[in-house]
Please model this.
Amino acid sequence: MQSLVDWYNQSLGSWLPKEVFVFFVSMLPFIELRGGLVVASLLKIPLLRANIICIVGNLLPIPFILLFIRAIFAFMKKHNILKKLVLKLEDRASKKSEGAEKGEFIFLLLFVGIPIPGTGAWMGSLIASLLEFDIKKAVIAILLGILMAAVIVDILSYGLLASVVH
Model:
């Protein structure tokens, strides 16, 4: 994440507020809130402000994924637009979701909330959508998972990482 912060400082830092940059970082798939909080820590954004920015940024794409991703994927496959990528994402979501139907709420909560590579709100939303989980339960589980991940990453980025970096 340090290289991302360095890039921001060298290219965008003079005209784009660091909070806006962190917001957009938190919206990105694979990086999401986890990366956003680390970047916020490195940019010395206060903890509470960083959490609000990153949580909102991470939440923003979720309703669109839950509501529209199946239709978007169907269109992309039908018209051969990034078809291999769509099939790969569907396959990955399917593999990561094995056994999820029984305890979908807890599964989604932990899947989104435990910050390990390949998990997070984007993939959790994709799984929930493709497996047709109840949308209200999925939104609540994903929101709680994001909050759980925020606490864990706060401890790491503003606690442990901050003491190592500073």
DSSP finds nine helices and no strands in the chain. The chain has a mean pLDDT of 90. Residues 135-165 form the longest helix (31 residues).
